Amino acid sequence: MTIEPGDTATGHRGPDTVRARLLGPVELHAGGVDRAPTTPKLLQLLAMLLIRPGKTVRVDSLVHELWNDAPPRSVRRTLHTYVHHLRRHLDPDGDRGEGLLVTSAPGYRLEIDPAVVDVSEFARLHRLGRDLLTGGDHAAAAHAFRTALDLWSGPPLANIHCGPTLAAYTVYLLEHRRNARDLWIEAEIRAGQHREMLGVLRSLTTADPLDETLHGHLIRALGLSGRRSDALAAYQRLRTRLDDELGVEPCAELRELHRELLSERHPIR
């Protein structure tokens, strides 16, 4: 199974198409122009609406995000002013009525299709990759995961001063990115690209020396590449570091992989 060009978020769009990015700096493009404001509170307000595209976000949720436990005395009037200014950013000509940002009791809603937000495309490709991996089409799964990861241009909501809701949302996104990365590596190895992945895995384990999943991928790729001594050395380095810094042993999966290497059995793919 392959991914057609039109299946990704980078396909053809007309000049009036709305599209939004959260996987990096927050952007909202309409009419070919990025309409996202630069004022921190307005940008934070926009992000709150973008994480629930097409759905009403309650006023109390917006207040909690923007001011946490210290809202101003005239908080609803202040929020209404922010909404007014954000509408002007999204529709500077004022020719669409409420435009993209509509009042929807008990809050506000961005009138956009969730599919135009890059998070939705990332989730779709993530699901596709998992289905392909489960079905045994490892090369296509690797391509799907790689395409999903390519949607990221940096840390999520990188230009936002996050309050409690958006901070939790960034953690959620980063966990999904980590899962997609790990599944991409697994798919590449199962597709027979273990030698090609060694450089990537060396770099990732150097950057994150306590990540047992990454080390497991590296050890497995080394073993499959006929480099059993290097694989055993990588395991021993991880074991020493885990003991020195955390006082723990490698996880059960890594210990089993180590036993396989010692017994000269072929590592599990």
From TrEMBL:
Residue ranges of coiled coil: none
Q: Name one GO molecular function term.
A: DNA binding
One Gene Ontology BP term is: phosphorelay signal transduction system
Q: Which Gene3D superfamilies match?
A: Tetratricopeptide repeat domain, Winged helix-like DNA-binding domain superfamily/Winged helix DNA-binding domain
Q: Show where the OmpR/PhoB-type domain sits.
A: 8-112
Keywords of this entry: DNA-binding, Transcription, Transcription regulation
Is the Chloroplast keyword given for this protein? no
Under SUPFAM superfamilies, the record lists: C-terminal effector domain of the bipartite response regulators, TPR-like
Name the Pfam families for this protein.
BTAD (PF03704), Trans_reg_C (PF00486)
The entry's DNA-binding region: 8-112
Indicate the family of this protein.
Answer: Belongs to the AfsR/DnrI/RedD regulatory family.
This chain belongs to the protein called: DNA-binding SARP family transcriptional activator
